[in-house]
Design a protein that fits this description.
This protein is mostly beta strands and 101 residues long. It has a domain of 61 residues. The protein is built from 1 helix and 5 strands, in the order βββββα. Strand 1 and strand 2 form a beta hairpin. It is elongated and about 70 Å long. The chain starts with a strand and ends in a 39-residue tail after the last helix.
Length: 101
């Protein structure tokens, strides 16, 4: 998930951005603030945009917890409905396990 137009969209890095002479744009640096490399990112809708290495790294880092586990968040649920045979709160029961409900 990468930033696109103020939202997050599913994208894939497809290569380094190049200038009109075929040279890669931006420069790597040990200091992340000074790293200016640019990459082309293809999104699921077919659009391609350029993102810097720092933006890509921040997006990847934001989706992982302190143990390196991937976290996926969603924005909303669409097209939801409840059928008449769905369980109601009065139908629900608690399960006891080791003295806890």
């Amino acid at each position: 998930m990468l930033p696109r137009g103020g939202t997050l969209a599913r994208g894939r890095v497809i290569g380094r951005k190049r200038d009109h002479e075929g040279n890669t744009t931006g420069r790597a640096n040990d200091n992340p603030i000074l790293d200016s490399r640019e990459y082309n990112v293809a999104f699921d809708d077919g659009g391609v945009t350029k993102l810097t290495a720092n933006v890509i790294a921040e997006s990847m880092y934001a989706m992982c917890d302190e143990n390196g586990n991937h976290i996926l968040l969603f924005d909303s649920i669409i097209d939801h409905r409840k059928h008449d045979n769905a369980m109601t709160r009065t139908d629900q029961r608690f399960v006891d396990s080791k003295g806890k409900q």
